[in-house]
Amino acid sequence: MRFISRTPVRTFILYPVITLIWEYVINRGNLLFHPLFLSLMIWGYLQYRLCGLYRLKHGGGGPGLETPPEHLVSSGPYAYTRNPMYLGHLIFLTGLTFTLRSWLAAAITIGVAIWFHARVLVDERKLADRLGQTYIDYTKSVKRWIPGLF
User: Fold this and answer.
1) Which residue of 18, 55, 66, 77 has the fewest CB atoms within a 10 Å radius of its CB?
2) Is 8 in contact with 86 (CB distance < 8 Å)?
3) Which pTM does this prediction carry?
4) How many domains does the chain have?
5) Does residue 1 lie within any of the structural domains?
6) Mind listing the pLDDT tens digit for each residue in 25-75?
7) Closest CA to 97 of 26, 149, 34, 51
């Protein structure tokens, strides 16, 4: 059960499988597939994966905030958004939604976005306590989600 409780497993394995099965059943075996949007899925996964490796290399710690970074990472992708890994999940799920034109995937994407936002608010308090004023200054100069917007 621990395996399924991991966020990457849910995003990149469980939700796509559930969506594929759902769409196959409700469309009576005729999947609507739009390959153009697969590029969003690939982008989202690579963003999640590569940003995670970057964070581990430059900030230490482990995956997730169970083992938080030892240093603030404010370079590379983290110079543009404070949550590029979570954003990668959302880009992937958006790609899944459009690739399959699935209302279920859209609902999952919205639910995950709300859950990530709530999680980020908690993560940010933990990081402010752990990393202090340096992190607080970072939050003032780098947007939480979309570079230049919010």
Assistant:
1) 66
2) no
3) 0.93
4) 1
5) no
6) 999 998 989 999 999 999 999 999 999 999 999 998 877 667 778 889 999
7) 34
Q: Is the dihedral of CA 40, 42, 45, 46 positive or negative?
A: negative
In-domain check, residue 115: yes
6 assigned to some structural domain:
no
pLDDT tens readout for residues 58-117: 998 877 667 778 889 999 999 999 999 999 999 999 999 999 999 999 999 999 999 999
Contact partners, residue 122, CB within 8 Å, separation at least 6:
none
DSSP state of 87: H
Residue with tokens 């958006």: 94
Q: How far is residue 133's CA from residue 128's CA, in Å, rounded to a whole number?
A: 7
**φ, ψ dihedrals at 83, nearest 5°:** -135, 55
d(CA 27, CA 34): 15
26 located within any domain: no
Here the tokens at position 94 are 């958006």
Nearest by Cα to 124 from 143, 111, 109, 108: 143
In whole angstroms, give the CA distance from residue 117 to residue 39: 24
Residues 91, 46: contact at Cβ < 8 Å? Answer: no
